[in-house]
Amino acid sequence: MDNLFDVAVIGAGPGGYVAAIRCAQLGLNTVCIDDWKNEQGKPSLGGTCLNVGCIPSKALLESSENFERAGHKFVEHGIKVEGLSIDIPAMIARKDKIVKAFTGGIGMLFKKNKITAVHGRGMLQKRYQERGNDDDSWEIRVSAGDEKEQSVRARHIIIATGSTPRTLKLAPVDDVNVLDNAGALALQQTPAKLAIIGAGVIGLELGSVWRRLGAEVTLLEAQADFLSTADEQVAKEAYKALTRDTGLVIHTGVEIKSTEADNDGVKIDYIDRDNNPQSLQADKLIVAVGRIPNTVGLGADAVGLQLDERGYISVDEFCQTSLQNVYAIGDVVRGPMLAHKASEEGVAVAERIASGRQGESGSSIHVDLGMMPWVIYTAPEIAWVGKTEQTLKADGVAYKAGQFPFMANGRARALGETTGFVKILADAESDRILGVHMVGPYVSEMIAEAVVAMEFSASSEDLARIVHAHPSLSESLHEAALGVDKRAIHI
Ligand code: FAD
Ligand code: NAI
């Protein structure tokens, strides 16, 4: 193949596939190159998020939460379940079915939008122009194992190559005893004892899954503070609930010294926060210590694509790289590693390319990283947007806070999910909302209202004047807004 496209997207995760679809909607002839293969060795679109990330983890969180409810929560409703059991292979098969439907769905969306999908690893080549040709397109070499290399040419490139798990030399992943996120999503039986290095987002979500299914789960976290990026008060409440109710054992401030895997499982030696040596024996170990941007084999050096000191592709606020007509989005660039962030950057770049093509100077749409919602799908769920109380203090910003507990919310009582609260932080003078922090039931859904309010520069008074349905969890947000002015009704 030697076709000239308007846009070539490298990577078909939530950044790349969404960018490709938006480009196609805007009339750009688009190709999307992706190298992901599933366990059956077949190409599978959707990147980390659909194959081994957001979607499969949420499928398992739902299954395990149903099991937990049936075993422990139904009884207070007067529902008795006898002989309760869980069929792990069936649960994993359900997860796989969801993944297959979604990854296959992207292929259909590509067909519908007339996007050319090319399977293989893309490597940037020197510009045609620089090699003496008279057009200004870029070339990408695509290799897919033994198959013949292909060449793709395009006027614009969007790099969306995502991220891969950060590895720990002291705990090499062997896919038997020591697993990364992909292995942790595919276990065929519940390990009796599960250790996790890293009490971040993956550790907490996947730890919750296997804890609810019966594993004894111990998380070993290097940082002294639990969930240090979240609002301190939220982190404290979440720690209490996750250790007390979910039953996770979380050790912070540890230093891993060694791991040793054998037929009996894996032994982890570490120094605890009081400087005492400790040893933990587990059947399985999950390593979840963050992710690194994926630029391996991209040919960045050869074409002079600039990376920053941490290995991310350097971009400006519009995701423009150091090279003309080459953009980068999602996990491979600065900012939170979140699927919705990747997708929104993809849309913004597609619109920028399309507006430039129409002779305008280029759309000024950019994604505001300060308005990015975060959700951790544990029970209780954790969600936030904007500034935390500790960052406002550190920045010397004068603020007011309003807070409302789910314990005093009628819907939360009816659900039997009363842990947690909603907190709103507003500027002391202007009353503009600066941050919203939640821990509690279904806050993954409730956070959207806070994002809309903040995007429209709402004040806490605006939220306090908006009617919220009764009884609903969203009334807690309303009451927290009233609380900023010390006039909450039900507390
Ligand atoms: P990716 O999804 O990583 O996709 C990149 C694609 O590019 C891959 O298919 C890769 O194979 C391909 N590729 C790489 N290099 C090349 C190349 N040279 N040529 C061709 N193809 C290439 N985020 C959320 O917002 N919510 C969640 O609930 C959530 N849960 C998660 C759970 C887990 C267990 C994990 C691991 C992550 C989770 N994330 C979640 C994070 C989310 O998955 C990522 O932020 C998101 O996938 C990033 O999208 P992306 O398009 O930038 O990259
Ligand atoms: P993370 O950054 O959330 O957590 C990693 C944790 O490991 C940190 O707390 C870190 O201090 C700790 N750590 C690092 N080195 C360590 C060591 N040597 N010993 C002990 N602890 C160590 O990264 P995680 O959990 O791997 O997830 C990667 C990313 O994927 C997240 O940051 C997030 O962007 C995304 N994700 C998002 C989800 C969501 O939106 N619900 C769910 C899962 C992942």
Number of continuous helical runs? 14
Query: Distance N terminus to C terminus?
Result: 67 Å
Could you name the CATH homologous superfamily of the largest domain? FAD/NAD(P)-binding domain
The CATH class label of the largest domain is Alpha Beta
**Rough shape?**
globular
What is the makeup of the main sheet?
Answer: 7 strands, mixed
Integer-rounded radius of gyration? 24 Å
Bound molecules: flavin-adenine dinucleotide, 1,4-dihydronicotinamide adenine dinucleotide
Structural class: alpha/beta
- CATH fold naming of the largest domain: FAD/NAD(P)-binding domain
Share of β-strand residues: 15-25%
Low-confidence stretches: none
Query: What is the CATH architecture descriptor of the largest domain?
Result: 3-Layer(bba) Sandwich
| Average pLDDT, all residues | 95
Helix content: 25-40%
Instruction: Give the total of beta strands.
Output: 22
Number of domains: 3
Report a brief summary of the structure.
This protein has 491 residues and is an alpha/beta fold. It has 14 helices and 22 strands. The protein has 3 domains: 4-52 and 94-164 and 292-369, FAD/NAD(P)-binding domain (3-Layer(bba) Sandwich); 178-289, 3-Layer(bba) Sandwich (FAD/NAD(P)-binding domain), CATH 3.50.50.60; 380-484, Enolase-like, domain 1.
